[in-house]
Amino acid sequence: MGVGIEVRGLNAWYGKNQSLNSIDMTVLANHVTAVIGPSGCGKSTFIRCLNRMHETIPEARAEGSVQVGEMDVYGSGSDPVEVRRRIGMVFQKPNPFPTMSIYGNVAAGLKLNGFRNRKQMDELVERSLKLAALWEEVKDDLHKKSGASLSGGQQQRLCIARALAVEPEVLLMDEPASALDPISTSKIEELIFQLKQHYTVVIVTHNMQQAARVAEFTAFFLMGSLIEYDKTEKIFTTPADKRTEDYITGRFG
Amino acid sequence: MPDPVHISGTQEVGWFRRAADYLATGFVALAAVLVIVPLLAIFAYLVLKGVGSINISFLTQTPKPPGEAGGGMANAIVGTGLILAVSSLIGVPLGIGSGIYLAEYGRNRFGDLVRFTADVLNGVPSIVIGIAVYSLVVIPQKHFSAFSGGVALGIMMIPTVARATEEMLLMVPNVVREAAYGLGIPKWRTTLSISLRTASAGVITGCMLAFARVAGETAPLLFTAFGNQFWNLKLNQPTAALSLQVFTYAISPYDDWHKQAWAGALILIVLIVGAVAAVRITTSRGMMKGA
Amino acid sequence: MSDSVDPMNPTEPLGQLQKPATAIPSMAQVSRERKPAASTVLQKIRASHPRASRIPDAVFAVIILLSAISVFAIVVLVAWELIDKSRMSLHQFGISFFYGHDWDPVAGSFGAMPFIYGTLVSSFLALLLAVPASVGVAVYITEMCPQRLRAIISFLVELLAAIPSVIYGLWGIFVLAPLLREYVEPFLARTLGWTGFFSGPMYGLGMLAAGIIMAIMVVPIIASITREVLTAVPQNQREAVLALGATRWEMIRMGVLRNARIGIVGGIILGLGRALGETMAVTMVIGNRPEVAKSLFAPGYTMASVIANEFTEATGDLYLSALVEIGLALFLVTLIVNALARLLVWSITRGSPGRSHA
């Protein structure tokens, strides 16, 4: 089951430049939350702070409180490695491991975590591929085909399967369909809709229609600050803030 | 859609993985140290053991007979210069010419073959080049010579110079060439005065790197220049060279010669590092000017 | 790359200049189309018509082509001379040359096995020591090093490649060998002597010294290629591994090294190629005794060393021919090894070699 995310006073910097200003936000468990905003508004930075990927960039740092379930992400005892295992991430450009088979890709995270039991791994790989709606297409080629030999949409679903294999509680998706064709995009969107039964999904998107299609809640970011956060329906029909309205209606961004 | 089961739950990162991470970091840092230490040691010894023996007589005298103290490597220093001059006269034009071919005329199968051949030439052990030049030049000439030494080293310079030239020329944007053609400048002029000049910093770098590489070569000189205990400025006679002299002295049983070997080595390394440093300085300045 | 075009006389007016380069007729084509009589040509050249550039262009092209052919010619000549001058020995000994154990110039019997053994063992030992060190330092520089140190350390590693072989040898004789003799070899004999690899008299000079020196010389080559291929691994691969919950080392292992392994192997093979042909430093520290011995303390002899030592003193044509045959073998082996290495490295960096972005 997914867990909720509680963000309080999250600030982030790239070197001297502040890219997030004191974000307060509560993400509900087992819902899909979209993060929208113009380029450079900090939406990618935001989700990368949730699983401590932001700090992997040299000179980048983040401060504040992020509570994922009972896990205090930035707490003093928190281990980034464990955080990243429990919060999965799917990137904009599909990045399967080219030197590994489809099976190898999905099992990669499992191997890292010390799984040795072959039978257990087989089960988990199958389960993850089914969750990602890819199983039927690849079940005969699991060990024969490399991760990179699939089509773009399939690669992205493979990356989703890979992320799901280590059983995260939250799934972060950074513009997962922006590099894909429309058919693959709709497959992914369908998938996201299904995934929310089991996971909390936060999806960054620059495509407002996509947000409207898949997300129950939407957060609008502008220049590093959270401007408005509400039910998707409300954001897109009767936004409270003028800036939100300007962005939605296409006056900028 | 199946139900995912949270098997792993809230496991912490195992101690084993953490230990492996620390060990790997340590090993890698150790590798860096292990690699740097010999370098520093070599330079330190060169300076410590060599500086003491560098004096006026070392720089101006020829070697004394074995066993006698004193003497110097003046003839070797000059000889190296002589041989390197010949090698540059051979290696640089042929290298630049080949590089021009590869960049401007050879974007085809034959060009690939030439490029491959240059790589092959680069990988041929220097002693084998020495054998070939011995056979091609020394035997017909019937004696060892500075010229044959220069030929051997010149051959070794070609691949480095060619590759640098090709790369640099390829970096010159095509629009520059087309602008020249549009002005009525013929191809040969364009290539030399415009493309090559634009690429000149990089080409000079390549030449100096090739120069630095062959300056220290000994093996091919063993049976071409052969070495000489006396002065020689003639191109068709055996000539001393710094690298050869260092070798001969190092393996000799005489202490005095050992000291002189260090001194000669120090001069040699200064020559080489000087060339490499000059390369770094000119390229960084060249980049500032904006090629 | 288009040949020169004569903009003063395009086949069509101005439109010619707007067309892409490939549409411009080749030089040969243009000259075929308009070939005036000889006297007219001379007149026009004298009038400094731009078309006069055609002859200098042709001359230039020929000169350039000759330079390129010269590279080819040199390699062919080298190969030819090696084959030609080793004919006598090839004829005399045939294949037994390569497994004969006896190198006795006085008796006229020439077996090259000791040198082949020496070359292989010293190179293998060098790689054994150099590979972990070079891959390690490359990983350090690209993945773990603080930004400020990066330039200095990579410069120092490259500097190792600039030191001539003879200076390595000098240092080997007077610094490394005594060190081995006094401290390292006794230690190894005490701890690992039972293996048989570390036994016998300890001279300092010998196979172990040669292996160590060659390792140091080969490190910069392997390290620089490894650095190139490691840097070529896209950042998104690293992120993908990290996002699964991996420690830094696990990220390097799975996301970087794994992707770069073909190129690294290529770099190792290139290092092998260099080690096989290494002459001076090895000659100075290996002891130069044509023996096949198990212990690394024992002196040895390599193919390059025997040529270096005995070539100028070779009495008799057969002696010389045998040495040249060794040179030929060395030439062929390094040829194959280097070609293999280049193939592997090209497949990763995808393009002509040397196009590094370090």
Description:
The complex is a heterotrimer of chains A (253), B (291) and C (358). Chain A is built from ten helices and ten strands. Chain A has a domain at 5-98 and 170-248: Rossmann fold. The model of chain A has no long low-confidence stretch (mean pLDDT 91). Chain A is α/β, with parallel strands linked by helices and 253 residues long. In chain A, the strands form two sheets. Chain A has a six-stranded mixed sheet, with helices on both faces. In chain A, strands 2-1-4-5 form a four-stranded antiparallel sheet, with helices on one face. Chain A has helices at 43-50, 80-86, 102-112, 118-131, 135-138, 152-165, 182-195, 208-214, 232-237, 242-248, and strands at residues 5-14, 17-27, 32-36, 60-68, 71-72, 87-90, 170-174, 200-204, 217-222, 225-231. Helices cover 36% and strands 25% of the residues of chain A. In chain B, 74% of the residues lie in helices and 0% in strands. Chain B has one domain: MetI-like fold (Orthogonal Bundle). Chain B is mainly α. Chain B has helices at 15-51, 56-60, 74-105, 109-123, 126-141, 146-171, 174-182, 187-198, 200-215, 219-222, 242-250, 255-289. Chain B is globular and about 70 Å long. With 358 residues, chain C is an all-alpha fold. Chain C has one domain: MetI-like fold. Chain C has helices at 15-18, 27-33, 38-46, 54-93, 113-144, 147-162, 165-192, 207-232, 235-243, 248-277, 280-285, 303-310, 317-349; strands spanning 103-104, 109-110. Chain C has a two-stranded antiparallel ribbon with strand order 1-2. In chain C, strand 1 and strand 2 form a beta hairpin. The longest helix of chain C has 40 residues, at 54-93. Chain C starts with 14 loop residues before the first helix and ends in a 9-residue tail after the last helix. Mean pLDDT of chain C is 83; it is low at 1-28, 33-38, 44-49 and 351-358.
